[in-house]
Amino acid sequence: MPGTLRLAVAQTTVPDDPADAGALRESGAQIRSLMRDAHASGATLAQFPEGAVVYPGKRVVSSAGPAVLAGHGFRSDPAAGDELARLCGLPVISLRLVDPRFYHLDTALAVLSDDTAAYYPAAFDDAGRAALASCFAELIEADDEDAAVLGLNAVSDGRHVVLPEQAAGLAGRLATAGFEPVPVDLSELLKAGGGPKCCTLELRNGGDRHDRD
Q1: What is the Cα–Cα distance from 59 to 79, expressed in whole angstroms?
Q2: How far apart are CA 55 and CA 50, in angstroms?
Q3: Which residues pair with 38 in a beta bridge?
Q4: How far is CA 173 from CA 89, 158, 203, 207, in A?
Q5: Structurally, how many domains does the chain consist of?
Q6: Model pLDDT, residue 210
Q7: Residue 206 lies in a domain
């Protein structure tokens, strides 16, 4: 998918217990090492100015075609879209999230291919639903049950879609649409509000997504 931009946001916290400081420093060193390796391999790393994204400012960006989709409403500021546009050189489509259960974009939207996405309509306002309809030729709706188990916190290579095994209804709709669902059991991570996408950092060259045909 030429021109696609993938962003990863590394996050750290100040430990409440001073005894945790050593572990935090070790984790930070590992992250910095990974970032150096990525940069050495040709990746371009961009950091948001503080204040552009409200804490924790994590997992708020997905990409589709020549634009960047950015969620806001609970944990991110709409002004982050301006910073994204400046850093990416791409238009930014801001999507307002209205259901507090789905406070990150990747809990309510999964970009499956260049022209297809799965989403939970009730997580967005009217303008957001209209924007998504204009971005994608095909939108696959997740129902309440599948959205509640973070079925949309999924990872797709354009054909295979890794998603929580609890989202059986969504898996069936994906298969009907020509995708190959890959269910995984992340029930322990779900307790902390995460799914497959939360475990993933996508590193891609342009044009390496699979076709469904």
Answers
A1: 16
A2: 10
A3: none
A4: 35, 15, 27, 26
A5: 1
A6: 57
A7: no
Amino acid in the structure at residue 175 = A
The residue that leads in pLDDT, 92 or 179, is 179
Q: Which residue is catalytic, options 39, 72, 88, 104? A: 104
Is 4 inside a domain boundary? no
198 is catalytic: yes
Q: Please check the confidence at residue 5 and state whether its pLDDT lies above 50.
A: no
Give the CATH number of the domain where residue 42 resides: 3.75.10.10
Q: Is 39 a catalytic residue?
A: no
What's the confidence (pLDDT) of residue 170? 97
Q: What is the mean pLDDT of the chain?
A: 78
Structural domain for 124, as ranges:
18-47+55-199
CA dist., res. 112 & res. 199, Å (int): 17
Catalytic residue among 39, 72, 198, 199: 198
pLDDT tens string 41-58: 887 666 655 555 443 333
Residue type, 154: A
Ranking 10-14, 158-162, 163-167 by mean pLDDT, the lowest is: 10-14
Task: Give the residue from 110, 106, 111, 105 showing the smallest Cα distance to 65.
Answer: 111
